[in-house]
Structure formats: C-alpha cells, structure tokens
Amino acid sequence: QVQLVESGGGLVQPGGSLRLSCAASGSVESINSMGWYHQAPGRQRELVAVIISGGSTNYADFVKGRFTISRANAANTVYLQMNSLKPEDTAVYYCKVDGTSRDDYVRRDYWGQGTQVTVSS
Fold first, then answer.
1. 3 falls in which pLDDT band (50, 70, 90)?
2. Would you say 121 and 16 are in contact if contact means Cβ atoms under 8 Å apart?
3. Residue 31 bridge partners (DSSP)
C-alpha cells in the first residue's frame, strides 16, 4: 500500500511563515503529480498548489506570490512553503499524490491524514 505522512502545521501570527512536508512511502511505483489542498469547517476541499512530474507548478489565485511548492523526487516528498500568512489561510491542509502502486499499477489518488494550520493574533 501507499502511505502519505504530513507534518509542519501549527499556530502562527498573521504575516508569519510555515513549511509543510509530505512523504510518500510503501509500494509507490510512479508519480504523475503531488499537490496540496485545504479545507475549512463547513466548506469543501479546494486546491492550493500542485507540482507535475516534469517540474511545472500551478497555484490557486489566493496564494500566488506567497506560497511555493517544491519536491525531492528521490525521497517522494513534497513541500509547501507558506509566507505572509493570513487568517483566511486557516484550515486543515491535505497532501495528495496522483500515482500508481506496484500492487496493481492502477492510477489513483492517495491522500495524507491532514495537518492543521491556524493563523491568528
């Protein structure tokens, strides 16, 4: 099975920074993309940033210029550097991998457990 483990969340004041990490392990065979989503209470999950296997990136409009997504391919790890944080960034952040497992070689989405980010003074 493929497992994703997230870390790096916490409490920070407006204008501060956090760095999230997500490591994929287990029977991963290949990865098409790695991304971050967030979800606040009472709202649906939405895309924050994604990085494709070739290295290209895409960002939601509300984080452009503030967040940076990057990866360490050899370790199957993706990062999200979050700067100039705002109270509206408060949410649970989830890592997602679009990839295949050696168990069946079927392409599917894998999700991390989520990590809480709270921006408050």
1. very high
2. no
3. 99
Could you identify the residue written with the tokens 């952040």?
A: 93
**DSSP code of residue 104:** T
* Helix segments in the chain, DSSP class H: none
Q: Which residues of 41-60 are buried (b: 16+ CB within 10 A; e: fewer)?
A: eeeeeeebbbbeeeeeeebe
83 Cβ neighbours under 8 A, 6+ residues apart: 17, 66, 67, 68
Q: Identify the three-state secondary structure at position 65.
A: coil
- Single-letter code of the amino acid located at 17: S
Tokens of 99: 């990839």
Residue 104, number of CB atoms within 10 A of its CB: 10
Q: How confident is the model at residue 73 (pLDDT cuts 50, 70, 90)?
A: confident
- What 3-state class would DSSP assign to 49? strand
Q: Residue 82: is its pLDDT beyond 90?
A: yes
Give the separation between CA 101 and CA 49, rounded to whole angstroms.
23
What mean pLDDT do residues 83-99 have?
A: 98
Q: Which residue has tokens 């939405």?
A: 46
